[in-house]
Amino acid sequence: MPANLTPQYLKAEEQYKAAKTTGEKIAALENMIALLPKHKGTEHLQADLRRRLSKLKDESERESRSKKGGFDPFRIPKQGAGQIILLGPPNAGKSALVGRLTKAHVVETPFPFATTVPVPGMVAFEDVQIQLVDLPSVQMGLFPPGLLGLIKSTDAVCLLADLSAPEVLDEVEALFKALEEGKVRIFDRARPPPPDLFLKDQPAMVLANKIDAGGAEEALALLAELLVERFVPMPISAVRGDGLAELPRKFFELLDRIRVYSKEPGKPPDLSSPFTLARGETVLDLAGRIHRDFPDHLRQARLWGSARFEGQAVPKEYVLKDKDVVELSIDLSERQG
Fold first, then answer.
1. Closest to 302 (Cα-Cα) out of 293, 291, 311
2. Domains along the chain with CATH numbers
3. In sequence order, what are the residues at sequence separation of 6 or more whose Cβ sits closer than 8 angstroms to the Cβ of residue 64?
4. Tens of pLDDT along 156-201?
5. Residue range 98-109: average pLDDT?
6. Which residues pair with 327 in a beta bridge?
7. What's the rounded Cα separation, in Å, for the pair 181 and 183?
8. Can you list the positions of beta strands (E) in the chain?
9. pLDDT at 55 (0 to 100)
């Protein structure tokens, strides 16, 4: 945590954690940004707070539109370890990919624009599920109404390029331009960009589909040259299956999540249903995920996995790692009394 955080800021942070509605969270975040000391040590935190605020405002706007205008097809509730949207031009193979990786009912056709509304499906990666959303096609960078809000609120973006299309480079450039005009910047997690308060940053990957098509290898080389120092396109074939076995792990890495297992005192850990947290979250964050009252009544935490020895007592601020097992000792006697 950056140094010199004032008591007023810390109180605003507690109000944010206790907020239940989107409006309450927005108000608390705005207060946190106003109270945050402005110096080099807080630049990263400032950017993170503004990203969270932008995301919440997008969600609030979409909720408002949904209430006023009825059903919003681009409002897709998140499920599983995280939500990844598939973005691409007509006939890039988005529906075929979702159909191969999930049990979602998708319409696969040889003609474009068969998908008219988002179709979510769940991809299994080991012991977690990842939500993959098939979107309507984007033709030469023209987003359907409502799609930009979903792009900004999702957890990650998967851009699909069609190696069989003669205009594949133009299609990809048009998508990047449309995102830029919509104040969205997609980036490779291996190459994080400098913070920009005026852009919504979204982690992304580029899949080069139809590697089994004639001339695909040459198209892939040109695409890699176009995206040099931005992305390394991953060749796949949604039809033949090339690269598909690797995708669930790639998706999980793109989300930058960790899995943490809970354990009750004196009992074996529950390895059937892990909690998924953002990388960098702590024991205290896990306690709040289990129950909103637990952080205030957390007495002790013991850890198996990334600790120096099994069952080690760790502080509330301990940063958890993937596949850690945590035993929380909660004292609710004060609240119950």
1. 311
2. 7-69 (1.20.58), 83-255 (3.40.50.300), 257-336 (3.10.20.30)
3. none
4. 999 999 999 999 999 999 999 999 999 999 999 999 999 888 889 9
5. 76
6. 263, 302
7. 5
8. 83-87, 119-125, 128-134, 156-162, 184-187, 200-209, 234-235, 257-263, 275-278, 298-304, 312-314, 324-330
9. 81
Provide the token pair at 125: 């990666």
Summary mean pLDDT of the chain: 86
Instruction: Give the percent of the chain with pLDDT over 90.
Output: 54
Q: Which backbone phi and psi does 318 adopt, to 5 degrees?
A: -65, 130
Cα R_g (the chain), whole angstroms:
22
Residue with tokens 């075929």: 96
CA 35/CA 56 separation, integer angstroms: 19
Is residue 34 exposed (0-12), middle (13-18) or buried (19+ Cβ within 10 Å)? exposed
User: What percent helix, strand, coil does the chain show, rounded to 5?
Assistant: 35, 20, 40
Name the residue among 335, 273, 296, 288 with its Cα closest to residue 20.
288
- Output DSSP code: residue 337: -
Contacts of residue 66, defined as CB under 8 A and 6 or more positions apart, other chains included, come to: 72, 75
Q: Among candidates 305, 300, 313, which has minimal Cα distance to 261?
A: 305
> Which structure tokens are listed for 114?
């068969």
- pTM of this structure: 0.76
Locate tokens 């810390």: which residue? 10
103 within 8 A of 88, measured Cβ to Cβ:
no
The angle that helices 22-35 and 43-69 make with each other, rounded to 10 degrees, is: 150
What does the pLDDT look like over 262-304, one tens digit per residue? 988 888 988 888 999 999 999 999 999 888 888 888 999 999 9
Structure tokens at 86: 């598939």
